[in-house]
Amino acid sequence: MVSYLLQETMLLFTLVPIFLCSVASAASLHPCRRDINESTPACRAIPGSASWPSPDLWESLNKTVGGRLLMPAPPGAVCHPGNPAYSALGCAALYWSSEFTHSEDPVSVEWNNWTNDTCIPIPSLPCTGYGYPVYVINATTPQHVKAGVDFARANNVRLIVKNSGHDYVGRSVAPHALSIWVHHMKGTELHETSFSPAGCSYVTIPGPALTALAGIQMLEAYEFTGKSGHVVVGGNGRTVALGGYITGGGHSILAPQYGLAADQVLEMDIVSPQGEILTLNECQNTDLFWAMRGGGGSTFGVMTSVTMKIFPSPEIVGMTFWIAASADNANAFDMIAYVVSQFPHLADAGISGYPIIFNKVKNFIDGSDTVIKGIIGKIIITKTNDASILAGKMESIMNHVNATWPGSMFGHYNTTYYPNFQAWYAENYDGSPTGYDNIMASRLLDRAALTDDMLSLKTALAKFSAIGQATVYIVSGKAVHEAQPRGGGNAVLPAWRRAYVHATSSIAYPSNNDTDVAIADYFSGFLSAAIRELAPDTGAYVNEASKFESDWQQTFWGDHYERLLSIKRSVDPTDVFWCTPCVGSERWEEKAGGRLCRV
């Protein structure tokens, strides 16, 4: 299989030339606005239609943003002879499975299906620009973002926002669109002892804080905070960027100890749907401050910077463990269910981590051709160098397994001490490959789902991992349950406040095959139903979930949805920002060909 590496950006996109809009007295107040009917059109403009902005308008927008308007070629085009972007050398060097390839490209995203497989780097398959935005603003300032928002609003153009492209539900790419790419909005500032929110007289929040621009990714955030001996509550993927991560809530291996990422936010700067550059905190724009912390990205505005509480980077004892049985062992899922049922007990003791259920996989223990089932994971305990605490908990679990199913299960664990979080992360970040078709199902599991009915738990986990594996991440606990976000709360799904486990199952499938797509869709529904039956009254983490949840309003936001919808209608009455599954998206849908139209 050919490996690919992102080539120089000059091969992938060209800049739009700079010209001025026609200067007429009536148009001088809005030099980048076309004359359109003031009533909301039935559909967004698309290239080739009478309502699509003229070249002069696009050229003027380019001037407004200082020459940062791009017309990118599809990223896989370098591998397609006959395409203007084709380059044999560029194709040979394109690492399509690398997260950084997609993060550094103005339009690429990590999962091919969200672009409808329109131009993946396989020369035998078609390559078109459909599936990707037409224009991209490479934004580095809030003024660049504002220019894009104003242009899209005034000209009835579909608007999307891309940061790193690490998006499991496909919100950061769309056809016939203008995209605001905030990846290069880089910058950090450390507040060593306290932070005073803007406009908040006599409010000083004690403790260190980090101000970061929207393009900062997890690898960069951890590196910066580590220099002063601190850590930010963040994700495990290196290219996860702060904007979409925080606005979706943001789970973390550190969340059971400190709370979700959204719980740490002290202040945000955003560009609103009306093009206003706003500061949000507990003293001003409080409704938006509440909504932007958990209400979902690409919905209420574009976050350009955020200030978050940070913490002394803790000592960590980490553990890698596995417990397995032969695939034909009738008790294998009884064992798995028992282990998972212990997760609330582990979380209450300050333990968190990333366990994974494996269902009928090749024996990775001895490398033989046998097939096994079981559970494997990386877990941690913070603020200690005493490995016996973590080892004692796992020893107790393994003793129960051996006593209950003698001779039929086998397991192992080892512990490692790390002087700080960054040392743990350097060895344990998520390096999973990208660049394929992928859909996901997920659910939050509370204590009742994990402990009340072992038969139901066993059945649900067996079904949920039927595709081969499923995660059962311990990323919630005491600090999430007891969080007190500034300003009296935030929009995070209420079920997080009693959940312990974020369970996911993903389906990878080949590109450009309708049969495989139909099978993947079927299994996605099967997996979602299986885990929903176990915890029908919880919900799912919007950033890692099925895009096709039928009751998505309740699933992703629960009782917060009505307030979120009211805020959305107030700040964005014409739906400048639209994505799905996102608050307020009910009034529009994508038609055949990808055009966005009113329902």
UniProtKB/TrEMBL annotation:
Sorted UniProt keywords: Oxidoreductase, Signal
Domain of life: Eukaryota
Residue span, FAD-binding PCMH-type domain: 129-313
Record PROSITE patterns: FAD_PCMH
Record's keyword annotation contains Oxidoreductase: yes
Listed Gene3D superfamilies: 3.30.465.10
Family assignment from sequence similarity: Belongs to the oxygen-dependent FAD-linked oxidoreductase family.
PANTHER family in the record: FAD BINDING DOMAIN PROTEIN (AFU_ORTHOLOGUE AFUA_6G12070)-RELATED (PTHR13878:SF91), GULONOLACTONE OXIDASE (PTHR13878)
Name of the protein described by the UniProt record: Fad binding domain-containing protein
Species whose genome carries this gene: Ophiostoma piceae (strain UAMH 11346)
